[in-house]
Amino acid sequence: MAFGPNPPSLQPHLCVKGGIEAIAFYEKAFGAECTFKQMAEDGARVMHANLAVFGGEIMLHDDFPEFGGDVRPPHGHGGASVALNVNLPSPADVDAAIARAEAAGGTVFMPAGDVFWGARYGRLTDPFGHVWAFNAPLAKA
């Protein structure tokens, strides 16, 4: 695995069905950069990938049910069990991030709005079943 010089202490590792397509979606929707990719022997599935995104890093791999994996993709298993929360600098960034991800194929289920904790916040599901939440503090009066 290739990590940056200072890997984050907590790194989400996403399991997807369609790793190549997922990498392309995250690049288009979130401006991610694939910093490492190792394909499986079948040449069709991603064994492991690292993506630099939103100032952090996520890992990603295709589903490998033949290995009896304990991490499976959200689709077909009742949905995601966590949301990936992205803190952004400004409320306008929340709207822009959600619009960009929706244009790339994400499904918005909580449009960006001002919420009671003093933030601009919205959520969407990516085409691979993972939930992304975007948050930015509202300007103080």
Automatic annotation (TrEMBL):
<dbReference type="InterPro" id="IPR029068">
    <property type="entry name" value="Glyas_Bleomycin-R_OHBP_Dase"/>
</dbReference>
<dbReference type="InterPro" id="IPR037523">
    <property type="entry name" value="VOC_core"/>
</dbReference>
<dbReference type="Pfam" id="PF00903">
    <property type="entry name" value="Glyoxalase"/>
</dbReference>
<protein>
    <submittedName>
        <fullName>VOC family protein</fullName>
    </submittedName>
</protein>
<dbReference type="InterPro" id="IPR004360">
    <property type="entry name" value="Glyas_Fos-R_dOase_dom"/>
</dbReference>
<feature type="domain" description="VOC">
    <location>
        <begin position="8"/>
        <end position="137"/>
    </location>
</feature>
